[in-house]
Amino acid sequence: MRKLFLLFFLSLWSVAFNQNMKECIRYSEEFLEKGDVYHAIHYLEKALEIDSNSVDLNWRMAQAQRLYKDYRKAEYYYQKVYLKEGAKLFPQSIYYLALMQEHNGKYEEAKDSWKRAKKIFMKQRNAYENVRSRQGYKNALWLKQALKDTTEYIIEQLPTTVNTPNSEFGHSIVGNQLVYSSLLADSVSSDEIVFTDNYKMRLYTSEMKDSSYLKSQLLKDLEDRGFSVGNGSLSADGKRFYFSKCTDQSYKFQCKIYVARVENGKFTDIDELGDMVNEEGSNNTQPNIAKYKDGEILFFASDREDKKSQGQMDIWYVLVTDGNQYSKAYNAGRVVNTEGNEVTPFFDSDENVLYFSSDFHFGFGGFDIQKAVGMVGSFQKVDNVGLEMNSSAQDLYFFKDSKTGEFYFSSNRIGSLYAKNPTCCHDIYKARIPAIPEVDSVKEETLFDLNKRLPVTLYFHNDRPGPKSIADTIELNYMTTYERYTAMKEKYKTEYSKGLTGDKADEAKEDIADFFLEYVDQGVKDLYWFSELLLKELQKGKKIRITIKGFASPLAPTAYNVHLTRRRIVSLKNFLWEYQNGVFQPYMSGTSKDGGIVKFNQNPFGEYTADKLISDNPNDLKNSIYNRKAALERKVEIQSVDLIQEDSTGAEVTFAEEVHDFGSQKIGSQLTYTFEFRNDGNEDLIIEDIEIPCECNTATVDKKTVKPGEKAFLTMTFDTKGYDGHAVKSVYLITNGIPPKKRIVFTVKLVP
Prior knowledge:
By secondary structure, the protein is an alpha+beta fold. Strands 2, 3, 4, 5 and 6 form a five-stranded antiparallel β-sheet that branches. Strand 8 and strand 9 (252-263) form a beta hairpin. The chain is elongated, with a radius of gyration of 32 Å. It starts with a helix and ends with a strand. Mean pLDDT is 86; it is low at 4-16, 184-198 and 438-445.
């Protein structure tokens, strides 16, 4: 009887359990339909209290937290879903996980997630997730260098007379008034809106007085019951004010652009722009009017369906004559617009620069502020304005105060005011570039920024450059080698995927594509970045030493690989010699008029650092040549950049050769080699000690004190008894000079 009662009780409890959970899900769906994400999350939390392991519930919560812009919680739930079901039920879980990791500044983790997402969506060629995942992976590679760049902006958050725990977006300066919009949530993307009858977008002004912002006032002239109003821009003559008026359709903003006449501080004669701007059935918003040639140009954002459209929201423009004549609408073009969203345009007519925000161009997460220099129809490449102005959150609504030169933008970065979660809401920020200090107070700059770029790693095809040669030099420029290498990408894919079928073959090909993108192509980008910074330092008259090391895969004999790596180093030096029509030649030859000099330390290490598991079988081409691991070993690296203090007191150690290869030798033999070095400083070089890590080695110098300009010799021996295969042996010369610790190496392949 007790068992029957218990079963009956459990049955009732189970029914109640399921009903309660279904009720919670139903309520959450109803609130989401209304755009009320806050209450939707409340009911999802109750449902998760009943069943915290439900993949479906965790997915719903992840989606809701993303819409709510709580990136940390969204990341947690997306990761929970992905770990439970591996993107089989919810393939977008890894896609959104990568996005949230970017938003939270976890860029290395985001890179791995984008890579996984890329593989999941690679067969859906036309799906946006496929395109965005590939762009996300490229963006992760761009971030490696972009994070090292520093900007000079001083960022200031506007006071609470403007910013509130709701969202504020800056738009323009009208006289001494800051014109901005305020809303509970962002109106940029329809999937990020909390829109209810209590919260509309409204335009406000704040008088700027003595570097302060007075209490804000509602722009009542532009209020319209039942509509949201925002995104204001004043014409150059101060007589017209353009703005957006929006209504909600299924709780998604649908906006049109209006214009009002400005007279004595009042806004009158409000009129909707025609079909050329406000195309029927599309969202048209965020107008920006600016001087352009002999007339004006009106930029705006639109999601219209047009054969010229590039993606979701695009930047469009119309030409304006006589203040009220509008041309047909033109798309700003492929340079500016992408498959993603481009919004909040601002055209600086003094500098001919278009600023806008994009969630697809390279950035630090979410929407980033970008700039494109040029006139419409001929915009040059798009550049991210950099950290500080941008963050891992959403950064939008850039504009410039032409009187002060200060920049304004809106962001929901950590530190913005909020009521419910730290990244829910936008504040308005101001950025300025600090005044340049007097020349006398400028401290001597270091090579810190240059060294942040290191190592610069460049990759090569097997036995390139100069195949089947034992020469130590080559006439080829590295870029020629690089172009020939990348032309072989399809062959690498074919060879590396041999013997595989289906998904395994596709994944192998994708791995090769990633290798060329992440390593080979990125190496060239790093090289150009490095070259630009190096040139700037040399033009200041600095004397610089660059250390380059070469590596090879173990396919060829040891002695041959040492010659090969030397040729690879020479190809890099040839690149610098020919860079920008020979701009480095005076520095490399010591004939520059500004006194700058660049010298090189070259360390050809052959294949001695290579992974010993890599095949050295010449008949196994798949694993010895086309294998990703083997390809990663064929490289040269710019490893360090040091300042040569030739005009100051001190000693300096310079070796004619820092690595010696003995080739193949018998096991048990005694090997000896003498290295020549010189004191290139202007004080005595004192040999303080020689560190010898291995008891199998001995090392001596012929003198303990080396006069300036004088030569000396270091003799090393290696007792090979008990060793076989590849061996690398080092000793360290400890001195009072530069560098204070110098590594000298010899290598050998020991055979019976």
